[in-house]
Amino acid sequence: MAIKTLQKVMEAKIAQGEKAFVAYIMAGDGGLDSLREQILFLQDSGVTAIELGIPFTDPVADGPVIQEAGLRALEAGANLRNILKTITKFKDEIHTPLVVMSYLNPIIAYGIQDFTKACEQSGVSGLIIPDLPLEESTIITSELQDTDIALIQLVSLTSPQKRIIKIAKAAEGFIYAVTVNGTTGVRQEFTEQLEQYLANLKKVSQVPVLAGFGISNSQQVKEIGAMADGVIVGSAIVQAFHDGNNKQITELLNKQSM
Ligand SMILES: O=P(O)(O)OC[C@@H](O)[C@@H](O)c1c[nH]c2ccccc12
């Protein structure tokens, strides 16, 4: 299996002695019209990849900030289909890999084959499907095989080592190391186990290991970034865009200095 673009981009960043930074946004929060602007803003800010959240009525892994953003996006009429269609319109302007994060339900409703085709047409480089366990992932990996779209696997603090090794074997793009037990959203403190957890993942994984959940300020970006190959920041960016505080996002990235 050829190495996919998303992974190559991550590896190139890391090879420069830098850390990867993935910024999550809720697609359609602020209306579908603001999607282009938000993506280009993050691209200009120098993020390594952009994670596009698809709004869903039952986002079991999400905390209040992303839940509310999802409701606003749904109210604005955003859905998987029109989000992908919107991106297709300006895909030539996007040079930063896009990762679609969706729960399984909207993908099944779309139809897996049609969804995969639409992702290819809009230039999507990766997928995160948090409620699709590795054991069932063939329903989509069979469609992704001949594409340049990577299915990102998630690992949690409670994953047993045997499972971690299994996931690492199947991993492509990067491994998403969830850093908290619970839902997305800003945290003040992280478990003492974090360093060991991430070190172990890096040891068993052939692909970059990125840490996400709870990371919201430059101090945390730096500290947790140092333990992994990079970080993923969601709620803090979603909130900043909602507040019109783009400067805060720039600061988060500028002080990255990892
Ligand atoms: O918001 P946080 O705590 O910074 O966490 C990242 C996260 O938002 C993003 O990657 C994400 C949003 N919803 C998810 C559901 C599952 C896995 C990951 C996600």
TrEMBL record:
Positions the record marks as coiled coil are none
> What role does it play?
The alpha subunit is responsible for the aldol cleavage of indoleglycerol phosphate to indole and glyceraldehyde 3-phosphate.
Q: How does it assemble?
A: Tetramer of two alpha and two beta chains.
The record's annotation in NCBIfam families points to: trpA
HAMAP family recorded for this chain?
Trp_synth_alpha (MF_00131)
Name the chain's protein: Tryptophan synthase alpha chain
Q: Which gene encodes it?
A: trpA
Q: Which UniProt keywords apply?
A: Amino-acid biosynthesis, Aromatic amino acid biosynthesis, Lyase, Tryptophan biosynthesis
GO MF annotation terms: tryptophan synthase activity
Q: For this protein, what is the EC number?
A: 4.2.1.20
ATP-binding: is it a keyword of this entry?
A: no
InterPro entries attached to this UniProt entry: Aldolase_TIM, RibuloseP-bd_barrel, Trp_synthase_alpha_AS, Trp_synthase_suA
Q: In which pathway does it act?
A: Amino-acid biosynthesis; L-tryptophan biosynthesis; L-tryptophan from chorismate: step 5/5
The reaction(s) catalysed by this protein are: (1S,2R)-1-C-(indol-3-yl)glycerol 3-phosphate + L-serine = D-glyceraldehyde 3-phosphate + L-tryptophan + H2O
Q: Which Gene3D superfamilies match?
A: Aldolase class I
Q: Which Pfam families match?
A: Trp_syntA
GO cellular component annotations of the record = cytosol
Quote the catalytic residue positions: 51 (proton acceptor), 62 (proton acceptor)
What family does the database annotate? Belongs to the TrpA family.
